[in-house]
Every structure is written in C-alpha cells, then in structure tokens.
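Both lines are quoted verbatim for reference:

——
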Amino acid sequence: MEITTQMIKELRGATNAPMLDCRKALQEANGDYKKAVDWLREKGMATAAKRSDRDASNGIVEMYSHGGGRVGVMVEVNCETDFVARAEKFRSLAHEIALQIAASSPKYIKADEIPADELEHEASIARARAVEEGKPENVMAKIVEGRVEKYKDEVCLMRQAYIRDDSLTIEQLILQSVAAIGESVIVRRFQRWELGERTKE
C-alpha cells in the first residue's frame, strides 16, 4: 500500500512522533492507522525506558482550578532541560496531567507508593464481598487479586485511564510524549484540594 504524505501528517498530528517514525510506522502497519499508532506507542515505550535513568530536574509546577474554584490542583512535572520545560508540548502535557488529577482524584502517583496496610484493607473488603456473593473458594484468591488491581487503577495516577482517551493510561500518555519530546518526563508530586473537604489529621 502506498503511504501518502497526508497519512503521515495525520499520524504525526495525532501522536506528535517525528515524521520519519510516522512513515516507518505506517509502512510496518501496511497503512493501517490504528496499528501504526500502536507501533509508535511501543516504540515510544522503548525510547522512554532508555531515557528513564537520566536526571530530570527542570520542568514546571502546573496549577489548575476547576468548577469556578471548587477544585484546585498543583502538580510538579519534571524534564531534563530548561529548553524542553519551556516547550509547548511539555507544558501541554503538564496541563493534561493537572486536568486528570482534578477529574479523577488519584491518591498516589505509582502503585508502589500505596501503603501495605491499605492494600491489605482493600483485599479484606474484596474477600468479604466475594464471600457475600457466594463465590467458590477455589477462585477467591483470583477475584481478590483482580479487585485489588482495580483499586490500584483507580487510586494511582499512572494507572488511571486518560480522561480524554480511555484506551490510554496516564503512564502511556507520558511515554508517548517522551517519544515526541525526546527527554525523560517525571511526575514528581501533586496536591489536589476540593472546597469544603476536611483535611486528615
């Protein structure tokens, strides 16, 4: 199948990947747009993995207010250079992450930050629910594990489905951007406030 300039432009517009990579992806996918996007995602992940050990100490503290000031978010997103920190693509990504936090209220960035006792508590709730539902003992462990994983998907920013495209997790969105930006990107920390909520002592 002939790969046209228009096809390459469309793919680049959707993924922010370099033109040559878009051409290669379309060739590999025989012109299939969805397969080409997947190919670029996989390539993006490989690129990100190579870059993840680089120091990322530049970046931005993105602030976002939602619902007429009812929800406020502050998130620190880091990159490697000041040049990238000022780039529109990077700032746009930081804004999208702030929107995600406002909309989906994550508690943690990654699953390894969840305290063990919290996971145990979720597992005991999942087990009690499975017993209540009359699930057989031989599948109980699998059900509990599945529900704990689902809990991690809900409370961890990196594992949440992206609010604009639920076929992507936030981690995949960031990895895709790493491929386009060419630098390591790290969400360092965030805080979310909601009007009227009580802070835990």
